[in-house]
Amino acid sequence: MTKIETEEQLRAIYGPPIEIAVAKCLVALDPHCKRFIELAPFAVISSANANGDADVSPRGDGPGFVKVLDDKTILMPDRPGNKRVDTLSNVLENPKVGMLFFVPGMNETLRINGTAEIHTITEFMDLFADTPKPPITVIKVRIDEVFLHCAKSLMRSRLWDVTAQIDRKMLPTLGKMVKDQTAVNIEVGTQEETDQYFAASIAERG
């Protein structure tokens, strides 16, 4: 097995990119992209620190929880969480981020690459007045590249297919897994109790 180390070696295997895959890349949001973000209740955001150490973080709220400020700018709320602030810390060192938006029941996704900043200004915070709890900060992303991604990966995974969902009991509760992985003495509880805990946390803190 040969290790691939150059672009030339890579292209020798894969060939040039498909024409439409290059042509569909936009430098700003069009009406279709805006509508996609408006319908998306879930997204992931990737970042890396100055050393290139990478991280990816899931984000979710109601549909349209990420706001479109203009054709080149979107705003993602940062909600209360575990206070690791991995994404935010990375953005301070390296503002380049990648994002992937999902709409339940839709196999296509939306990809955005851009440059991020962290804000607390009232102008941005007020845009999230329609949510039960205000964000702590807002991640402003200036778009460099945006494009729709085809359905094949989600079709292969059957992500939205209810018949493909596992029985939750196939894995222990989060508390049990974390207790096994660490020396922290935490209450394990049942899956129902875990779900109730997080639901209460969302209701209280957002």
Structure description:
With 206 residues, this protein is of the alpha+beta class. The protein is built from eight helices and seven strands; from the N terminus they run αααββββαββαβααα. The protein has helices at residues 7-14, 19-23, 31-39, 86-93, 122-125, 152-157, 174-181, 191-205; strands at residues 42-48, 54-60, 67-70, 73-78, 96-102, 109-119, 137-149. A seven-stranded antiparallel β-sheet has the order 2-1-5-6-7-4-3, covered by helices on one side. β5 and β6 (109-119) form a beta hairpin. The radius of gyration is 20 Å and the shape is globular. The N and C termini lie far apart (50 Å).
Question: Roughly how many Å is the radius of gyration?
Answer: 20 Å
How far apart are the termini?
50 Å
Q: How many E-type strands?
A: 7
What is the mean predicted local confidence, pLDDT? Answer: 94
Total helices: the number is: 8
Low-confidence stretches: none
**What is the spatial order of strands in the main beta sheet?**
2-1-5-6-7-4-3
Task: Report the biggest beta sheet as strand number plus sense, adding barrel if it closes.
Answer: 7 strands, antiparallel
Q: How would you spell out the order of helices and strands?
A: HHHEEEEHEEHEHHH
Relative strand content: 25-35%
Shape: globular
Q: Class by helix and strand content?
A: alpha+beta
Percentage of residues assigned to helices: 25-40%
